Amino acid sequence: MREVDKKKAKSFMEKHARAFARQGATNLVYFASDADISRIARYYQTDQFKRFDQIFLVNEQHQKNCIINNRIVCLKADAVDAVELFKKYLMRFDYFTAINEGLYEGGGKYPLNKDTFQGYALPILKDVYYHYANEHYKIGVPYHSLEIIHPGNEGYAQVYSDSYPGTLYKVTLERRQPRVFFTNGLRMRLCNKSIWEDAGDLDSIYCRMNSEMLKVVKSHFPNIHDFPGAANRNEHIIEQFDRIIEDAKTLNYKRVGMIPFGFHQNYKKFLEYLSKVNPGPLEEITLYHLNRNDFRDLYN
């Protein structure tokens, strides 16, 4: 996204912040939405959308930032940049939509239907929300319950898509208590939640992420690192953590967070490793995961 477009989107949100951040509003956000403004104006004025106070349609291909009929907002922005703008104004949404991300059709740079972006967007979603997604993808957030909403059911709305059909889910998020371990003066937490809910409290983040998405995220979180060896699941877990320990010593990190990697590794070996190394200034390591089954060996 061009820097000038980022500045325009930011200025647009600042100008209308008071109207956008209304408490108790029923809101829908659609990432990589249709960019045809005339079609948008017709489609989202139909009866099924009248219950929404605001409908945010996010697409870098929009001609401009604009508001249609006081409640339909076209935001010309990258999806990650849009999430950061929504977070800035404490906005939380009732409906999350990402159907046609454009990776194969053109225009898309990174997947929106994978857990990487879904987890990134989690801080702007309400604890009970509706998730409209491409039917070929799974819901990648930590949920307590998941219910398919069919046409005619309460809460149903058919967002516009000229490509893939979507499925609407009612998602109740799960809030599990973190698992905490202490070893060698170091605190290790295991959290079934999005790392981006705590990102502001971490000195550094290690993750596995699409390179194009990583570029955009890094503009908001400079201390994010592509986790070493993430693409090779057979690489020894200890070699990966050696990098983190060395970074902590060099850059004076005290609190580090990371997203799952090497799904078939034995993480109990990591606890044994921590009991023997000098962690330097590092005081806390938190392992974040969205899938309930990640890190099963540590929960057992």
What is the general shape? globular
- Using the coordinates shown, work out and report the CATH topology of the largest domain: Rossmann fold
Order of helices and strands: HHEHEEEHEHEEEEEEHEHEHEH
Second rung of CATH, namely the architecture of the largest domain: 3-Layer(aba) Sandwich
Class of secondary structure makeup: alpha/beta
Q: Helical residue percent? A: 25-40%
Largest sheet: 8 strands, mixed
Mean pLDDT figure: 85
Give the CA-CA distance, first to last residue.
44 Å
Number of domains: 2
Q: Report strand %.
A: 25-35%
Rg over CA atoms: 20 Å
Poorly predicted runs: none
Query: What is the strand arrangement across the widest sheet?
Result: 3-4-2-1-5-6-8-7
Describe the structure.
This protein is of the alpha/beta class and 300 residues long. The protein has 2 domains: 3-173, 3-Layer(aba) Sandwich (Rossmann fold); 179-299, Leucine Aminopeptidase, subunit E, domain 1, CATH 3.40.220.10. Helix content is 26%, strand content 25%. The protein is built from 9 helices and 14 strands. It has helices spanning 3-15, 17-20, 37-43, 79-88, 115-121, 211-220, 237-251, 268-274, 296-299; strands spanning 27-31, 54-58, 66-68, 72-75, 93-98, 125-134, 143-149, 166-173, 179-183, 186-191, 204-207, 224-226, 255-258, 284-288. It has an 8-stranded mixed β-sheet with strand order 3-4-2-1-5-6-8-7, with no helix packed on it. The longest helix is centred in the C-terminal third of the chain and has 15 residues, at 237-251. The protein is globular and about 65 Å long.
